[in-house]
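INFO batch 0412 | record 1 of 1 | parsing
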Amino acid sequence: MRIGLAGAGRIGARHAAALCGLPEVDALVIADADPGRARDLAARLPRTPSEVTALENVDALFAAGLDGLIVAAATDAHADLVDRAVTARMPVFCEKPLASNLDGTFQIVQAAAAAGVPVQVGFQRRFDAGNAAAREALASGRLGWLHTVRSCSFDPAPPPAGYIPSSGGLFRDCVIHDLDLIRFVTGREVVRVMAAGANRGDDFFREYGDVDTGSALLVLDDGALGQVSATRYNAAGYDARLELFGSKDSVITGMDERTPTTALPERGEEPRTAYSGFMDRFSDAYDAELQAFVDVVAGRRANPCPPEDALEAFYLAEACELSMRQGRIVGTEEVRR
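INFO prediction complete | emitting tokens
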């Protein structure tokens, strides 16, 4: 199998290393807006079992005889690259977001459906073993009926100031993972949201019209309640947890010896080695989602995260953003096309 990679930055490099470890991948072809960065990444990768090649530009990927394409380029390049792959009838994996706005995302959903080409979106938390087990626990009836679900995404430090203007804001950039996960694990839709945000840290968030901390209360279509929380300031370490509370039992994922929280009263435990970031916390999940994409390309499984799900998560992030800006409850039908 010959796989192309558009983007040789941090997440692209992580995907490239994982792809080199998959026996189905015979050749990996890398391209980046910066040709030197693509060459540097190719030189660092192991050559066995995959042949690794760097191209001079991203356009060359579409003439490289690929079986599938992974898009890990800058966010503003996602929509065009996915559209070109779909037009070429090439299966594509794309890091979220598919596009920087709702209209662009909607257009990709329509194009992929019309072409019958699989587009897998990179919501890696779906592939986390704990989250998958939580989904099964709920579906099996072990928890009884669900009354509360809570999800959090706490970054240890803020991104560079230059990242914020094009990020889409905290809810679209970060909380969208929690929103997708709640839909995925519960199998329910969110019908109303009430969101709030705060700025307690660096001024650049406020300057760019963003917030550094946010929370939202969700009402699911069966009456269960959800809560999502996120912040750019959690110096104890990266923390991403999901909690399900049911009438019979409750479960939590993301709670282990590296979870950056301290139980009180303290009992003299050894200091924790906290997760440094999302790629550390979800390392196994990233590997699993790429294996899933290879299986999709080979025709061995159905698409586990289609673009329609990315659109639904985007709708929820938009509803949260609108609620925060206007200080009111927003029904999700208000933002749907």
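INFO post-check: The chain has a mean pLDDT of 96.
INFO record closed
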